[in-house]
Structure prediction request, 158 residues.
Amino acid sequence: MTKPKSKPSKPIAVVALEVAANQKAASASWGVPLAILKAAKAAGCPAFSPSGRINRTGFFEWLKSHEGEAGQAVALDLAKADRQELDNEKIRAQIRLLRSRDERENRTLITMAEARSEWARCIAIAQDEFRALMDPDHYRVACIRWKSRCGEVLPDEN
Prediction:
């Protein structure tokens, strides 16, 4: 026996709260920026109770008569957000700089010039070893093979 298929649940309708428990709940439920709620409370809006609850009707009545203050609060909030983003970008740049400096100091990262110099030193060491271990004919063949593979040739022994 199989279970009967249940119907999918209907989406729950979002109902605006008449009294919000706090500013975040009011902002989410009523679609009002948090900056406006904070400015309203600071300006003495009577919709705010001492316990932190906010009356929707009282808040919107107050807001109608104080629209200029609310707009100013939003402008200040946006300016604060822009300033915060610039500060964050500055901090990210400083972190990149410090990481780069740390990598150079700990030798986990070297410049291309240093890498080329180190590579040339390693080739010179290998060249000396090849010369010591090989007779001149084998060394010449190794130089020719090097040139065919890498595009460079080890200097021939003169």
